[in-house]
Amino acid sequence: MMSDIIDKPEKPLDDDCCGGGACAPCVWDHFYEQLSVYRKQQRAIAAAEQADIPQEQAK
């Protein structure tokens, strides 16, 4: 069971990024990392829900 489910991350605002390329990590790096975690969690949740559906109902 997943105990640390996160909400879908919100995209940074246009003025959240300086555009200089020198920030490490950039706000976009953080966003894409969190989005990846979120998507993996959503796939795992969907797979778990599919596993709970009896085969007759899944057709």
In short:
The chain is mainly α and 59 residues long. It has helices spanning 27-52, 55-58. The protein is rod-shaped and about 55 Å long.
Topology, please?
Blueprint: H1 27-52, H2 55-58
The average pLDDT value, as a whole number, equals 86
What fraction of the residues are assigned to beta strands by DSSP? under 5%
Radius of gyration: 17 Å
Q: Show unreliable segments.
A: none
Q: What is the chain-wise order of helices and strands?
A: HH
Number of strands: 0
Task: Kindly report how far apart the N and C termini lie.
Answer: 26 Å
Describe the sheet with the most strands.
none
Indicate the structural class: mainly alpha
Sum up the overall morphology in one term: rod-shaped
Helix content range of the residues, please? Answer: 40-55%
Count of DSSP H/I helices: 2
